[in-house]
# Entry
Amino acid sequence: MPPGEVEARALLELLSLVKPRKRRGLLLVGEGEQVSEVARSLGSPARSAFSRLRRGRRRLTTVLKRRAHGGVPAALSGPAPQGPDSLG
# Structure
């Protein structure tokens, strides 16, 4: 499997640990959407979208820190993404 596929698979597995509504916001921002567009896509006010993004980034940061300290299953042992800020 090419390295890019391993990194993408690891990132998707890490994202699966984030609640669905927060994960959708992170993915949309990662694709270049503005928060106002994310809010519209989620059917929520912009403040709610900001809040979900903040909590989603926090959760992803926690997961990445645990992974860095060996707390995430070996199936996720590919290279770590640069961090939640690289998603948006």
Observations:
- The CA atoms of residues 46 and 55 lie 14 Å apart.
- The helical segments are 3-15, 20-30, 35-42, 46-68.
- The two ends are 27 Å apart (CA to CA).
- The first helix runs from residue 3 to 15.
